[in-house]
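Researcher: I'm comparing several assemblies side by side, and this is the next one on my list. It has 820 residues spread over six chains. Same procedure as the others: predict the full complex and return the structure.
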Amino acid sequence: MPRKPNTEARRGEIVRALQSVMAKHGYEKATIQAIAKEAGLAPGLLHYHFSSKQEILVSLVTALADYGQRRFEQIAGTAQSPMERLTAYMEARLGLGDGAAPEVVAAWVMIGAEAVRQAEVREVYQRTIATELELLSALLANCLSEHKRATTGARELAAALLAMMEGAYQLASATNGVMPAGYAAQSALRFAKLSLDATALESGA
Amino acid sequence: MPRKPNTEARRGEIVRALQSVMAKHGYEKATIQAIAKEAGLAPGLLHYHFSSKQEILVSLVTALADYGQRRFEQIAGTAQSPMERLTAYMEARLGLGDGAAPEVVAAWVMIGAEAVRQAEVREVYQRTIATELELLSALLANCLSEHKRATTGARELAAALLAMMEGAYQLASATNGVMPAGYAAQSALRFAKLSLDATALESGA
Amino acid sequence: MPRKPNTEARRGEIVRALQSVMAKHGYEKATIQAIAKEAGLAPGLLHYHFSSKQEILVSLVTALADYGQRRFEQIAGTAQSPMERLTAYMEARLGLGDGAAPEVVAAWVMIGAEAVRQAEVREVYQRTIATELELLSALLANCLSEHKRATTGARELAAALLAMMEGAYQLASATNGVMPAGYAAQSALRFAKLSLDATALESGA
Amino acid sequence: MPRKPNTEARRGEIVRALQSVMAKHGYEKATIQAIAKEAGLAPGLLHYHFSSKQEILVSLVTALADYGQRRFEQIAGTAQSPMERLTAYMEARLGLGDGAAPEVVAAWVMIGAEAVRQAEVREVYQRTIATELELLSALLANCLSEHKRATTGARELAAALLAMMEGAYQLASATNGVMPAGYAAQSALRFAKLSLDATALESGA
DNA sequence: AATGAATGAGTGTTCATTCAT
DNA sequence: GATGAATGAACACTCATTCAT
């Protein structure tokens, strides 16, 4: 009577526990003991399901990337026009409404710092950023081409907006009451619209 | 016959050593031994000049804030018009020319991550961010008032640009070849100008 | 309807797996997981068939003793004269021909080290050595008495040859290219003959 | 007022402590805690003076090689003739008199087992064995050439005697009361003499 | 018989901090 | 001021053994 494997479920629990602990205390202080306690598991079990602490972190990065993807798709939902989809994207990434998850944001900021140090983390972090850049570029290009404008600058614009998003996460996690309330989603969208309009004017023959 | 105190010089050496090591390996891996080696000093000496490792880190935050201040003032130099000063600021913060210091940027990103975790670091990090926000707000407000426009939105605009700067630091440190070359300074200035112009139009009676 | 017990077969598989892993990585690094993997079994099963890891080791010692016994008997085969049987013994223990098993030798060396540390292993190891000493003593005594010589020194001679064999195993396992090729079987037999001859002369009245 | 380095002294203490613990419990069970306790030092200090446990072991191998060298030279002392020096060598390696050190022997047996597993240990172990083989070859060759005999077989003879020595160490450490008392030094010398004489007869034209 | 998850004590190693010199 | 040894509490990871299924 063999036992049913439950590794996938356990791995999920462990990854979620890392997210929680890391959001509060950073990666180095997210010890195996602390993660295990958060997950309600014996410490040794973590190394049964993952071969190293870094592997848990890498799993978390991909889990957060998936989460972001789902959140966007859910909010984009019925959006039809390119502009509606762009707005949905900003809401999904920077909005303060339902589903805004400060823990996810803080964990992501910690991951960004680890990506500077650990090559393996950097690799998967970079892939996530690259994917995000593609997605945002495409959304912007759609807005441009809808009005028959040149899409040449879409990538630089996307890069700038992406940087703004990452910076907003960082500042939201590391400061209290310094930044104006709700500036991020609003400003990002404003920048996007101004740039799209300016592009329109510039490229207009 | 007491020796000439050299504490200030020593403290400076130690802080610079922390910056170097931290840029490469992050704060947790910047051990007292590693910092001492980088500085060419005996490990025990670090705790003579600083009471804790965290105190070195706090000193580094203020040192980097001062460095940023000096770099701006130097580049701003003879700039006269508000717009020239704003351009000088962006160059100082995001420019790729002389004095662009990737080590400083990487160290600053690591500090940002520590600010999420350590209250004492967060405190001085927040002050630095707040000062920066004031500076950038003032530069933008000057541009606006030069043309007799309302300065109401200057702070939000400054916040968004600041976020973009921090995000650009993060992405520059944690990715290679993903972001378009030189997008940051260019885009930030473009956003600033578009926003200033738009403000002008909006607030125009 | 009870299943057909396969415990004996399973125990054999497990013991053989320990031999393989131990030859490569030593006893301490021969983990239950590694043995199970080598045997193609689930880790938990090992503790169903054996009550402890040490018990597997003890089984291996007796298995190797049996193996050595069989190998000698097979090679001795049709040998009739005492000298032929002695030669067969040396071939079985030190020969490089068919059936020379480096894995067995390496495992035996590891067992020898464990015998120093673990009383229970030492006990069965000692018994094996004692049996071997008796066997070799008898072979030598037969050679002596065939020529009507005193057999007094047979035991000391056997002890010395046994030591040489064990040392040859050790050096074969722990060195590469240091020892002259094929020195062991040859030298042991030469020593035996010289000693037998010398005994003959000495005891000849 | 800088502190005087005492690393060399401490390293010696630590290596001696490893020897003691290892003789009793083997290498794997010679934990850093156990070694530290034996040496009367704090566990952390061991990694201040050595970068790893393996490095302590490697130091022990060379220390034991030096010890053996000194013991031979001391016993050889005033020995003049080649045969006297050969006898001194056997006494130094296998004798039971003053200075016979069962702890050293047991530690050496444990080292032999580790040499099978750890490449770095094997390297230094092999060098020691090779040096020993050279020494013994030279001693035997001197005996042969003194009587104007061919020295061709000296190396094989040395190898066989070396194997006997290593095997005697193993059996002395892992068995009690099985092996005849004092067989080793006596038999080794006897083998050497018989072989030398036989060589003499064979090569005599 | 068999499975594979679970446990928890133990390992080598790291490291901020202290302190005698 | 300066040195480098010393401390001891972490840490990630390992592993024999147990146990529910």
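Model: For your comparison table: Chains D and A do not touch (no CB pair under 8 Å).
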